[in-house]
Amino acid sequence: MAVFMYIVIGLVMLCCYFLYKPVPSGFPDPWKYRLTVTAAEVFMSLYGLKMLIRDFRRPSSSYEVMMEAWSKNMTSTPIPPAEVPGSNIKSRLDSFGGIKVRVYEPKDRVPGVPLPAFLYLHGGGLVIGTIDFYDRGVRMITERLNIIGIAVSYRLAPQHTFPAAFDDTFAATKWLLSHAEEVGVDPGRVALMGDSAGGLLTAAVSAAIADDPSVPDIKLQVMLYPWLQSLDLNTPSYQKMRQAKFGTLMDVVNLMPNFMSAAVLGSTDKSIVGQISTNQHTSGDFKRSLPYRTFLDHSIIPSHMKPACYRPPSPDDDDEGNEKTWESMKDVLTSLEFSPLLREDMTKLPRTFIATCGYDVLRDDGIFYAHRLKKAGVPVEWVNYENGYHGIQWVGDSAFVIGRQMANDFIKYTKEHL
């Protein structure tokens, strides 16, 4: 009996160890978050163990385990049905200028009457994600707006380095604007939407379309916790998340350097990932440049949003950097397609909705971008969900309260302005 009790106590303690996770003060779904994080951690641990036993290979990072799990599981996501019971939306696969897309439209649309449309560019650090995986989200947005939705597939790193993702999303967007009548779309009422890396592509494609006189402009862009620059990984939000320990779902701080290296170089060399992690992937000269000092100025971030651990940039930081790494990455990192925050003239950009989250390394990217748009006179609505985190679920039964609010806000904004 005593042995049995010790076993039970041990199992209870083990469960408590796995289940208990620090949660941000005021977070409205603490136990739902803890259970979600625990499930993700158990899944990742089992996959790491599987790699060790099956392949005799010890994973070097959570990124390696994530990529292995993705390649074996997520890419086999079942093809979504054309119609879902209880939904007024039907979908079909199509090709826009050679780019695979899934088109969603109301079943009761009036033939011959053009509708507004949005293109959704999925997130995933430019290395994971599929339009099948995002089906529920895009279908839900289409349903609530009662317009045409288009999920765009694009090539992923490391097999296809940047600008492959930009080239594909730009080509699909331009094709739609040039052939809107064929799809039953009003070309003057097209929006671009994206989350995380999809936010980067949204900003870059919107700007490229604004510079292209051969097609109508994008009317509206919507960005959810967007990734908009890869030059300063020591912003207040990065510093905050290096100190915060909230489990796997908020561990983007350790994934971003890997995403960047894979997207730019096609590999995740440990040395280069380490340099990116410590903000040494740019040169001292560039850190002293006007764009870096102006567009990534930490003083733009409201003081109450800077954590207690925040350390402002010092002159010594300008001397830190690896010239060889910078030479290998600078053409991509300073391109407007990869760092749309560096664009000089923002005046031609469309009306914008930006959602940021308090527990997200990319929070400040969105704040910098909103500041630039506002200075340029572009209508912008920036909403910060203080207790939200990067990738917070906003669709389906698994959605969090904050995620549902974010979805309500950006859908309402789109409905009012598209």
Low-confidence stretches: 8-14
Tally of individual helices: 15
Q: What is the tally of beta strands?
A: 8
The biggest beta sheet, please? 8 strands, mixed
| Strand ordering within the main sheet | 1-2-4-3-5-6-7-8
Task: Tell me the Rg in angstroms.
Answer: 22 Å
Portion of residues within helices: 40-55%
What would the average pLDDT be, to the nearest integer? 90
Task: Give the termini distance in whole angstroms.
Answer: 68 Å
Strand content: 15-25%
Write down the overall geometry. globular
Sequence of secondary-structure elements: HHHEEEHEHHEHEHHHHHHEHEH
The secondary structure category is: alpha/beta
